[in-house]
Amino acid sequence: MLPLKLLFRDWRGGELALIATALVLAVTCVTAIAHFTDRLSRAMEQQSLTFLAAERVLRSSQPVDDSWLEEARKRGLQQAEAVTFASMVAAGDQFQFAAVKAVSDGYPLLGTLEMRSAAGAPSRHVQQGPPPGEAWVEPRLLPLLELQLGDNLELGDTSLKVTGLLDREPDRSTSLFDMGARLLVHVDDLPAAGVIQPGSRVQYRYLFAGDDRALEQYLKWLQPQLTEHQRVIDLHEGQPRVASALDRAERFLFLAASLAVLLASVAVGLAARRYGLRHTAYVAVMKSLGAGRSKVLAIYLGQLTALTLMATILGLLLGSVIQSQAVNLMADFFPVEPPPSRGSPLLVGLATGFACALGFALPPLFRLARTDPMQTLRRDWSNPDRREWLGLVLGPTSMLLLIWWLSGSLAITAALFAGMALLVGGSALVNQLLVRGRLSSLGGAWRIALGSLQRRAAFNTLLIAAFGTGLLAMLALVFARTALIDEWRMQLPEQAPNHFLFNIAPHEVTPLQTILADKDLTSTEFYPMVRGRLTAINGIPAKEYKQDQRNGEPNALRRELNLSWTDNLAPDNRILDGEWWDKTDKGVSVEVELAARLNLALGDMLRFSIGGLEVEAPVASFRSLDWNSMRPNFYMIFAPGTLEGFPATYITSFYLPPEQKLLVNDLVRNFPSVSVIELDKIIERIRDTIAQVSLAIESVMVLMLVAGVLVLIAGVRASIAERLQEAAIIRTLGGRRRLLLQSLMLEFGLLGVAAGLLAAAGAEATLAVLSQRVFELPFVFHPTLWLVGPLAGALLVGTAGTLACRSSVSQPPLQVLRELA
Amino acid sequence: MSAMLRAENLHHRVATSEGPLTLLNNISLQLARGESLAITGASGSGKSTLLGLLAGLDKPTEGRIWLAGEEITAMDEEQRAALRARCVGFVFQTFQLLPGLTALENVMLPSELRGERTAAKRAEEFLARVGLEHRLHHYPRQLSGGEQQRVAIARAFASFSGGDGILFADEPTGSLDAGNGDKIIDLLFKLNAESNTTLVLVTHEQRLAERCGAHLRMDAGAIATADTLGDNDNLSEVSV
């Protein structure tokens, strides 16, 4: 009872409000961010799975055994089927190749189809394809076939009524089966159509969704039975670009939550330290009145437990309300409604509350229990930091363990540890500089400010570390977010090519170039392409050659490769070793990852079989490239003059604005042998998803910045009383207000600069580890960080400190002294 | 009359950066129940250190102390705290009231630490005895210096759980003006006489020392003189 009674009295006296506020702040921030990240990451996951229209897809070139599907049904999984192939469709006298997709009931399992029932009607989301006997078509197929909605078209031997315009399908792919305008039909119409014959190039996609565990068990059962023509695809394989963006975003959100823990810990640590100092006299008196160490400890542990529980509950409530309001406010920006909150983020908040309390508030309380009662007689209320190691070890350890648990990433934990270690080491160094600095040559405000800094050098070390942590968290987050979003923007620039043309005959190159130029469309180079097989390396036949065959990588020795030649190195290509054709005139440039898999060295002799003829060329260079650049790219680029004798077709890519989409029809009509791959819809969807992810990141960052500023304020408050007293005494002795104000601004400004510089160093170290180990981005040095850090530090800490202490300058000094007494 | 307080050959040294510093050197004394002792001396003579050791707030480097018949130098910190909770009261120069607690709650604190259920009633009685029954729910900052010291005196007497009590006062008038100081001293001696408690006080004030039955004057950590002041015949109990 006594701890609770004292807790109540302490609370009323305002002492405990400090630590309680910090705890509530900590739990609120972490809970809000954990909720927010949990809901967003689940929303993103749901959104991303719609790229497959399912959670997993079994892809096969043949229909699979019915028993496999039966087994899925038995295990309670949802299942649907999609068959894709290219086929000629007809309407009256018009014929056109179309990318046919025949879907079963239930398709799509995830995501929606966007279609219109009339040309001018708004697009609507539907969760099933056309019924048997009907067809939905991509709008540009209508003019190609001179059709209207409601007319019939012929697919093989069957006639289907066109009842819808298909604007978007969740799982449109870039494969050869999806070339041409889309025709969506019901799978039950396929037998009557008779378009699928033995030997037809068809892709069967079996879609699965359902309980995670059941799905996992089913795939475990299925995997051993798959042939080499069958594969189970998840998001990473289906849409690696989206998967990578989501992975990185998720890691970013975990990083943000970890930084929230870091900030919260610092806030609680500062508040607990201040509480401990202010209670030294309290405990000394209690001890002189007969309270032993164990009694004092029991009282304060009881208080801390009750306080932590209350603050945590309040923080959980506030955090939940804030995140729900934040999600509501941003609802319009998210294409997918985030799923409802669940319990796990509350657990994170609870753990944060207790970890912060135990890790950061417990050591000052242990120190309190060791207070010497003789202090009542000496009237000395300093709280010597004996056994400070407990605080130094317990706090950071509990914080790092919490971050590790929260982020699930040793790399994030290590990165933050590295940044913090640098920051604390730097703070100690600054302390030494402060203690040894000479002030005799300084005058006025500088002398007062630096004198104050010197007198509190030890505490200032802690304060710089605390301010530095707040700034580090903010800087690391802002720069990590910038790096991620820039990377995504670079990957998908506004006018990235969104259409590929291939199978272009040599005589079609110039007319096509003319058409594109007439329409103001910029294409990449028209690359010649010859199909060939790599048959031997240094005379060793390919069949006998041992290669580093990584899981899932294409086997370059067992299939035909697209071989090209050009003088111009594409912008996304880079020669890493060897020479390009400006320095040598023979050989072949090999993509660096393929070269690594084949264990190639410069000068190795490669033999190719092209149309029955053999060509040999030495490896002239290794070349890196960006497969995501939306440009034609090649594993092998020959020196001009090597392959010109072989019959070649050409390939190019270009950006086609949506309003010029019907140009595709002209191209298809005028160049019937040229194949068009339309990536615009996919790029649009990827861009939407990445915009959503970016928004999530931005909003979490704003929350974090608010938390960071609160920590700075907590730091200022922790040091305010002594400064107020000094300022009041100086004013009593005749110090002018302006002088005091200047000295306060200087003192906090200098603390901010020191904290900002150290935070920049810590953030640079953190970002170095994060970029390489967590975000898989190249290391970049950030010169602006070193400018922004000290500036932001001076501005934020200087302003917060001066504002907090302004009462000492504006109020009569006697009033300040009386209030402090 | 049996000894309430006894000290034998006390030595106290502390470690400093310049080597060990002797604070007390060979102090012995004895005080009977219900009597009063004034300890005087210049600043730094060791009087507050001696007070702290006699009250069991710290342990001497050498020597033995008995308080209320129990040897506190043989006790650990917890045992000494338990003894203080039973029979030791303190009055400090700067009052040492807890700022977050009202006058009543400050006086209740010693009883609450002992787990007594009647803490509030007992505290009200003591506050009435020091004339502050109308200031029960005021915080220290709302009280004058003299009133704060009266609350501290009430708390000190509330510290005794019955039986023998010994009150240690460290410069009890040091923060008060002469008028208030006199009133506080009158109150202290009045309550001391009513409760038959033993009183040990440290003071700079000669007139205060003169009201005590025995007087030790300290110099450089040792007893310089030990006198009987007034007509008290208990000087024999104080041995140098």
Kindly name the structural category of chain B. Answer: alpha/beta
Share of residues in strands of chain A:
15-25%
Structural class of chain A, by secondary structure, is alpha+beta
CATH-derived architecture of chain B: 3-Layer(aba) Sandwich
Set out the fold topology.
The complex is a heterodimer of chains A (821) and B (240).
Chain A: H1 2-13, H2 15-49, E1 56-60, H3 66-74, E2 78-91, E3 94-103, E4 113-116, E5 124-126, E6 134-137, H4 141-145, E7 152-155, E8 158-168, E9 181-186, H5 190-193, E10 202-209, H6 212-222, E11 230-233, H7 235-238, H8 240-278, H9 280-288, H10 293-329, H11 344-369, H12 375-378, H13 388-407, H14 410-436, H15 444-455, H16 457-491, E12 499-504, H17 506-518, E13 527-537, E14 540-541, E15 560-565, E16 574-578, E17 588-591, H18 592-597, E18 605-610, E19 613-624, E20 636-638, E21 649-654, H19 663-670, E22 675-678, H20 680-718, H21 720-732, H22 737-774, H23 783-810, H24 813-820
Parallel strand pairs in A: 3-9, 6-8, 15-20, 17-19
Antiparallel strand pairs in A: 1-10, 1-11, 2-3, 2-7, 2-10, 4-5, 4-8, 6-9, 7-8, 12-21, 12-22, 13-14, 13-15, 13-18, 13-21, 16-19, 17-20, 18-19
Helix pairs in contact in A: 1-10, 2-8, 2-10, 2-11, 2-20, 8-11, 8-13, 8-16, 8-20, 10-11, 11-13, 13-14, 14-15, 14-16, 14-22, 15-22, 16-20, 16-22, 16-23, 20-23, 21-23, 21-24, 22-23
Chain B: E1 3-16, E2 19-32, E3 36-41, H1 47-54, E4 62-67, E5 70-71, H2 77-87, E6 88-91, H3 103-113, H4 119-129, H5 145-158, E7 166-170, H6 178-195, E8 198-202, H7 206-210, E9 214-219, E10 222-228
Parallel strand pairs in B: 3-8, 3-9, 6-7, 7-8
Antiparallel strand pairs in B: 1-2, 1-4, 4-5, 9-10
Provide a descriptive summary of the structure in words:
- The complex is a heterodimer of chains A (821) and B (240).
- Chain A has 821 residues and is an alpha+beta fold.
- Helices cover 54% and strands 17% of the residues of chain A.
- Chain A has four domains: 209 residues, no CATH class; 183 residues, no CATH class; 194 residues, no CATH class; 180 residues, no CATH class.
- Chain A has 24 helices and 22 strands.
- In chain A, helix 11 packs antiparallel against helix 13.
- Chain A starts with a helix and ends with a helix.
- Chain B has one domain: P-loop containing nucleotide triphosphate hydrolases (Rossmann fold, 3-Layer(aba) Sandwich).
- Helices cover 32% and strands 29% of the residues of chain B.
- Chain B is built from seven helices and ten strands.
- In chain B, the strands form two sheets. Chain B has a six-stranded mixed sheet. A four-stranded antiparallel sheet of chain B has the order 2-1-4-5.
- In chain B, strand 4 and strand 5 form a beta hairpin.
- About 4% of the residues of chain B have low confidence.
